[in-house]
Write a structure and sequence with these properties.
By secondary structure, the protein is an alpha/beta fold. It has two domains: 2-107, 2-Layer Sandwich (Transcription Regulator spoIIAA); 121-280 and 315-345, Alpha-Beta Complex (2-enoyl-CoA Hydratase, Chain A, domain 1). It has ten helices and 13 strands. The strands form three sheets. Strands 3-4-5-8-9-13 form a six-stranded mixed β-sheet, with helices on both faces. Strands 2-1-11-10 form a four-stranded antiparallel β-sheet, sandwiched between helices. Strands 7-6-12 form a three-stranded antiparallel β-sheet. Helix 6 links the parallel strand 4 (151-158) and strand 5. It starts with a helix and ends with a helix.
């Protein structure tokens, strides 16, 4: 998701060239009209208002007086940002010609308390053979070997679903997996990326075609107006078959968007167990809109469900829930340690 935001910032910079900047200033800058336009967009096209029990009518009533009293566009931008924060959705962004906003409240619970991080990259090497971790060139993958008595496990941390793995990445991971007794696949702090890549990567863990979820898109102004659900399948790959390897998937609240979808998919793989914290959620694809004043607004209008029809927007509960923050402060990653313990049982 970080790369998507950076891309949007780059695009916005291009959009707001001198010529565009002047044209924005001649567009409709009436604060109340822009607020009502945003409110209506969200009311009719955002897909989670009822799912999250958000009283959007009350939001309009609460924020209208502040909008009417706004003194300048900077204050108005802050007011709209606070309005969008109520959605608690990391797929919600807004970009003006002077500032970018990204909703980050999915990192916090309903009381504003930050969820346990449950991840510290500085602790990883102590569990690796010879204290070594490797990264193939042009790769988001970090991997190493964990020795456990006469057994060897391959540890893989995938930091972002930025695109398909290169042949170079597959080659080195395959070399490590050749004689391994199991896999620890770590997606902690993975903010997402390419949904199609989720399906491609997940296919390595399956032995047959499997129904893994559904998707639906807003189709009307009503909060529950959606298209019929479309089935999503994973087909096993003909190359790089990892389905026979016992696998532990490590997650935390930083697992978001496409990585959250990947977590949901792997629950149906035959040899995968999820260990760690609940994933962060984000079960939708962002869509772009413009306000009358030219500001770009992004929020999701379609949603993802697991194969049982359960919305995955608010995250995936692990098979084994662990809060590791206290132990991490003492230099131990007990989520990795529990993964090793579970693989030992396989």
């Amino acid at each position: 998701m970080k790369k998507i935001i950076i891309t949007l910032l780059f695009v916005s910079a291009a959009l707001f060239s001198c010529e565009k900047y002047e044209s924005i200033k001649t567009q409709d800058t009436d604060y109340k009209k822009n607020f009502e336009h945003l409110w209506t967009l969200v009311d009719e096209q955002y897909c989670f208002l009822d799912y999250k029990n958000i009283d959007w009518d009350q939001v309009k009533e609460d924020f209208t007086p502040r909008v009417e009293a706004a003194q300048n566009e900077f204050e108005f931008f802050r007011i709209l940002s606070e309005t969008l924060d109520i959605l608690k959705d990391g797929h919600v962004w807004m970009i003006s010609d002077f500032q970018a906003y990204s909703c980050k409240t999915f990192h916090y619970d309903e009381n504003g308390v930050r969820y346990p991080k449950n991840f510290d990259t500085s602790l990883l090497r102590q569990y690796m053979k010879d204290k070594e971790l490797y990264t193939p060139i042009d790769s988001e993958v970090l991997y190493g070997l964990i020795e456990d008595g006469d057994r060897t496990y391959v540890y893989i941390h995938y930091s972002e679903f930025a695109g398909d793995w290169s042949n170079n990445t597959y080659y080195y991971v395959e070399q490590a997996l050749k004689d391994a007794d199991g896999i620890i696949f770590d997606v902690r702090d993975n903010p997402g990326g390419d949904v199609e890549h989720c399906l491609n990567l997940a296919s390595h863990f399956f032995t047959s075609k499997e129904l893994v979820g559904h998707t639906a898109t807003k189709s009307g102004p009503g909060h529950n107006d959606f298209t019929e659900k479309k089935a999503l399948y994973v087909k096993p790959t003909k190359q790089h078959d990892w389905s026979s390897k016992p696998t532990i998937l490590l997650t935390n609240r930083g697992v978001y968007s496409a990585a959250n979808f990947f977590t949901s998919i792997l629950r149906y793989a035959p040899n995968v167990t999820q260990v760690g914290g609940k994933s962060g959620g984000g079960g939708a694809m962002p869509m772009t809109h413009y306000l009358p004043n030219g500001w770009l607004v992004v929020f999701p209008s379609n949603t993802l469900y697991d194969r049982d029809g359960i919305d995955i927007e608010c995250g995936i509960d692990p098979d084994i829930l662990i809060d590791a923050d206290a132990e991490m402060a003492n230099g131990r990653d007990i989520i990795i340690e529990r993964a090793i313990e579970e693989l030992r049982k396989k």
